[in-house]
């Protein structure tokens, strides 16, 4: 019997990224919904993820946290699903996945919190400026149909999720290249299944309050 996957999440969190990735694999998994500030911070869950945040997956005896790591891990754990390029063709795959985990998330989060890099201090921060990041992201998404070439991969789950959220909440500029890229991804069956499951879970949580 294959090792069980347990998925710890909250439907109003970055756990939506991991849910989408799990749906792309098509493998069965068990979902554990945690609440911010209570079950997410209790001793039992902190033994799984010491940060007390979601998402986390436990696959048999292996525990994986951080969305980019979860996407990369699941692609490698189920290679027959074709969600990662061959090991010798992963330059763009790694490049843009880690770009999204580092410069993109930092620039977008800082901007949302009202932090602007002081003029002349751009060299002291990993992303330079918000504008630099947007320009680099646009280059990435308009160079090919998908982030790592002409085939969808786990990197698109991670980068695409950030682009989709950014467009929805205004933290990423509404450039045509971003809208076209995410528009392609949003048509995927796995994305739609994941969204339906998380939206349903969010509705149930709200009704239970």
Q: Using DSSP, what is the number of strands?
A: 4
Q: Helix/strand/pairing class, anyone? A: alpha+beta
Average pLDDT metric: 95
**Which regions have little confidence, pLDDT < 50, spanning 5+ residues?**
none
Question: Which second-level CATH architecture of the largest domain applies?
Answer: Up-down Bundle
The main pleated sheet reads as: 4 strands, mixed
Question: What is the CATH class name of the largest domain?
Answer: Mainly Alpha
Coarse morphology: globular
Order of helices and strands: EHEHEEHHHHHH
* Overall number of domains: 2
Structure description:
The protein is of the alpha+beta class. The chain has 2 domains: 5-82, Glutaredoxin; 87-189, Up-down Bundle (Glutathione S-transferase Yfyf (Class Pi), Chain A, domain 2). The protein contains 8 helices and 4 strands. It has helices at residues 15-25, 43-46, 67-77, 91-112, 130-143, 154-169, 176-185, 189-208; strands spanning 5-9, 30-33, 56-59, 62-65. The protein has a 4-stranded mixed beta sheet, covered by helices on one side. Strand 1 (5-9), helix 1 and strand 2 (30-33) form a beta-alpha-beta unit. Helix 4 (91-112) runs antiparallel to helix 5. The model has no long low-confidence stretch (mean pLDDT 95).
């Amino acid at each position: 019997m294959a090792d069980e996957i347990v998925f710890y999440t909250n439907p109003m969190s970055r756990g939506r990224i991991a849910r989408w990735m799990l749906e792309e694999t098509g493998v069965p998994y068990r979902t554990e919904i945690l609440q911010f500030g209570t079950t997410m911070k209790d001793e039992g869950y902190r033994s799984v993820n010491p940060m007390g945040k979601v998402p986390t997956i436990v696959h048999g005896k292996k525990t994986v946290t951080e969305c980019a790591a979860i996407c990369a891990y699941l692609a490698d754990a189920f290679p027959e699903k074709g969600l990662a390029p061959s090991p010798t063709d992963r330059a763009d795959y790694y490049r843009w996945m880690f770009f999204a985990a580092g410069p993109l998330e930092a620039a977008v989060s800082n901007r949302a919190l009202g932090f602007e890099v002081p003029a002349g201090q751009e060299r002291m921060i990993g992303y330079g400026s918000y504008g630099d990041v947007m320009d680099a992201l646009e280059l990435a998404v308009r160079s090919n149909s998908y982030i790592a070439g002409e085939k969808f991969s786990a990197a698109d789950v991670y980068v695409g999720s950030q682009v989709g959220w950014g467009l929805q909440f205004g933290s990423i500029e509404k450039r045509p290249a971003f809208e076209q890229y995410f528009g392609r991804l949003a048509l995927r069956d796995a994305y739609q299944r994941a969204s339906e499951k998380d939206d349903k879970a969010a509705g149930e949580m709200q009704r239970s309050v």
